[in-house]
Design a protein that fits this description.
9 helices; nine-stranded mixed β-sheet; about 40% helix
């Protein structure tokens, strides 16, 4: 991770941050989160952080959606219109596999900021996915340490269903998005059919996952005044993208 990217990111923060293991940390020793579920503990495991990018995520998400990682990244870059974005925030970035890939799609001088609460994941991101156009921050996504309307694009791929307050996180993502900016999320999806919905929801609850229906994020984005809302559902996952009205929308 380049020093220029670190200092530019530090300038975006609304809280003091220490540089630890190559990432900026606004939390220090405190996680400021409830006792983790089984799924959350996995995301904080150094072993999972090591295998997540190359093994766990590609296999699990292909089974869940039938979409390859490469196709996911291309869809994300297109939906977020990264070719015209200067600043990207990747919430719950994990080991930075999407952060670094999406950073390559930004125009010259662009910066992708990966944000996560897991120290092992961010340590892995710095080791495996640092580029001159990426920087990583540790913090709590329920209170993003950035001013309103900071980023041209904001995304969260494969993590909202792990979080204790996913809609609060989504609203924070919209708060830091500039007018005219784009937001995209990839999260869980459960069909409307009652038997399937009950079975999938019960199974997910056992390991601490939340299953969202087709209306959850579409309605949230619409109620926040977003436009150009698009949704794709594939098996157990959904991709939802939208634009914040304003200049360039």
């Amino acid at each position: 991770m380049s020093q220029d990217a670190v200092e530019l990111t530090r300038g975006l923060l609304t809280e003091d941050a220490a540089l630890r293991h190559g990432f900026l940390d606004v939390l220090g020793e405190s996680t400021a989160s409830p006792a983790p579920t089984v799924a959350q503990r996995a995301m904080n495991s150094p072993l999972v952080a090591t295998v997540y990018e190359r093994l766990w995520r590609p296999a699990a998400f292909y089974v869940a959606s039938g979409v390859t990682t490469g196709a996911e990244q291309r869809r994300a870059a297109s939906a977020l219109r990264l070719c015209t974005a200067g600043l990207l925030l990747d919430v719950a970035c994990g080991p930075g596999n999407f952060t670094a890939s999406l950073a390559e799609q930004l125009p010259g001088g662009g910066l992708a900021v990966g944000f996560d609460i897991s120290e092992p994941m961010l340590t892995r991101a710095v080791l495996d996915n640092h580029t001159p156009r990426t920087a990583y921050v540790r913090g709590d996504a329920r209170a993003l340490p950035f001013a309103d309307a900071t980023f041209d694009a904001v995304c969260c791929f494969g993590a909202l269903y792990l979080m204790p307050e996913p809609f609060r996180v989504a609203r924070e993502m919209l708060r830091v998005l500039k007018p005219g900016g784009r937001v995209a999320v990839l999260t869980s999806y459960v069909p409307d059919l009652p038997p399937i919905r009950h079975a999938m929801t019960a199974g997910a609850r056992l390991i601490g996952l939340t299953m969202f229906d087709r209306h959850s994020f579409v309605d949230l984005f619409a109620s926040a005044g977003l436009v150009d809302i698009e949704q794709q559902t594939q098996r157990a996952l959904q991709f939802v993208a939208a634009a914040k009205p304003g200049r360039g929308a």
